[in-house]
Amino acid sequence: MEAGKNFSTISTFASDENGAITVDWVVITSAVVGLGMATTLVVSGGVENLAEDTRNALANISVGVTFGQEEDGGGFMLTAETLTSWHHNESWFNATTTNYSDPNQWSAEQLVAQHEAMAEIILSANPNDIQSGHYQNAIDHMGAIEIGMAAQGVSVPDSGVDFQTAYESFHGS
Q: pTM of whole model > 0.70?
């Protein structure tokens, strides 16, 4: 009788499925981890090459300066509507910005020198310069030069003043 009881215990144990799900999860999880590791090995070389290519591409890009009153109120630029000098108009704006943007007319070095000359005029302005319009003319030219610099990918030099600063100072913004 005891042999029958042992057989019954063994048969109950063999048919019991409690804990089987744990074994299933261990096998499935091991398979997923293995696939993940295999994928990482296959993809990692390509990702490293792509990262290097991206780094090199970004290293060779110069970030242009934002000009113009943007929709969100940030940034600033010379436009036909923001001209400071009373003798400048839309026609002057279009011709001058086109001229400064043309690398056949203005080299990067010439643009930087012209920007620095306008900065000197703006920084040394006196009441006579403001009354005669010389100061306002320099502000407009500086804005047009900065548009040309952006078009040619030239960084605005640290001349002590830029168009936005000069414009806001003149208009009390």
A: no
